[in-house]
Amino acid sequence: MQATADDLFRALADPTRRAIFERLALEELPVHALTERAGVSQPAVSKHLRVLKQAGLVRDRRAGRQTHYSAQLGALAPLIDWTSQMAGFWQSRFDHLEDLLKRMDQ
Amino acid sequence: MQATADDLFRALADPTRRAIFERLALEELPVHALTERAGVSQPAVSKHLRVLKQAGLVRDRRAGRQTHYSAQLGALAPLIDWTSQMAGFWQSRFDHLEDLLKRMDQ
DNA sequence: CTCACTCATAACCAATGGGTTATCGTTTCT
DNA sequence: AGAAACGATAACCCATTGGTTATGAGTGAG
């Protein structure tokens, strides 16, 4: 199921969680690597990842005893839709970016 | 002071508050008009407006005993920047892949 | 086989936050 | 002047949530 703008805003509202997502936008990482930099405990990181996954923002890949997470940038589409709708005059400038993300979904 | 992406995400994470902002994006409205549709009490609406104003998302204009609020769409800029940056990260990952493929080409 | 590592879950706690009712200061209307 | 409308604030309540520690399940290494 497609995440709503509501899901995305809620998932990204927390700074710690958003920081995790930002890191995952750069590279796929296992939980312990994320924990090192997150400034919170490993269970806290796992909980954040759960929320991000629920929102469709990240994907997990089991590899032995590690779980690698990566960002699903295409999931940002509803956020872009919402913003575009709000700021109608920027619509044209956004269409390009939106297309890009949608085409690269998953 | 300029609101951060953090402020914006937090301000827009609540559905009721976001709905208020969406209405104000269409037209300037006094508090009581917003209250009619918000589904919550007038003080609740006032609190939401306070948060939105703090984030720079709305502007208020006193007129007699009414206070008219309107959306400041330009305040969404940091949100757009953030999203663009995320897309940019993705782009750079893609560039890396391209590099890799090119180097492997010969 | 045993020990260490990785991660998810459970149980719990404190802070935050969105809601309420009550009230007060302004402003408008009669 | 008195009453009613409007909106902000205060005081309070309860659900949510982000954090913790403890633990268990699964996997890799010695």
Polypeptide structure, described:
The structure is a homodimer of 106-residue chains. The first copy, chain A, is α+β, with helices and mostly antiparallel strands and 106 residues long. Chain A has a single domain, classed as Arc Repressor Mutant, subunit A (Orthogonal Bundle), CATH 1.10.10.10. Chain A contains 6 helices and 3 strands; from the N terminus they run ααβααββαα. In chain A, strands 1-3-2 form a 3-stranded antiparallel β-sheet. In chain A, α5 runs antiparallel to α6. Chain A is elongated, with a radius of gyration of 15 Å. Chain A starts with a helix and ends with a helix. Mean pLDDT of chain A is 87; it is low at 89-93. Chain A binds chain B through residues 6, 9-10, 12-13, 15, 18, 22, 25-27, 71, 73, 76, 79-80, 83, 86-87, 90, 94, 97, 100-101, 104, and chain B through 6, 9-10, 12-13, 15, 18, 21-22, 25, 71, 73, 76, 79-80, 83-84, 86-87, 89-90, 93. The structure holds a DNA duplex (30 and 30 nucleotides).
